Amino acid sequence: MIAASLPSTWTRLIFAPAAERAAATPEERAAYDNFVKRLMANPEDFGFRHETPEDVAADDRFDTALAAENQDWG
């Protein structure tokens, strides 16, 4: 989902060793860093939402089944 919306050059910034990240243009690094800040500050804007146990209990059957499966893992 998110990967499809990223410029292709950012893939190397995500998985790059420090030397390769340092080789990126300042504009690329600044744009990527800004994107990460926005993603971390407002994940809902990117299709994510925070779920509490109360949300899961009130959610549809899929989420309820997923929560039950996750409980099996402890």
Summed up:
It is built from 6 helices and no strands.
Distance between the termini: 28 Å
Query: How much beta, percentage-wise?
Result: under 5%
User: The biggest beta sheet, please?
Assistant: none
| Global structural class | mainly alpha
Taking all Cα atoms into account, the compactness measure Rg is 18 Å
- Helix fraction? 55-70%
pLDDT < 50 runs, ≥5 residues: none
Summary keywords:
single chain, 74 residues, mainly alpha, 6 helices, elongated
Explain what this protein looks like in three dimensions.
With 74 residues, the chain is mainly α. The protein has one domain. It has six helices and no strands. The chain has helices spanning 2-5, 8-15, 18-23, 26-41, 53-58, 61-71.
List the helices and strands and how they pair.
Elements: H1 2-5, H2 8-15, H3 18-23, H4 26-41, H5 53-58, H6 61-71
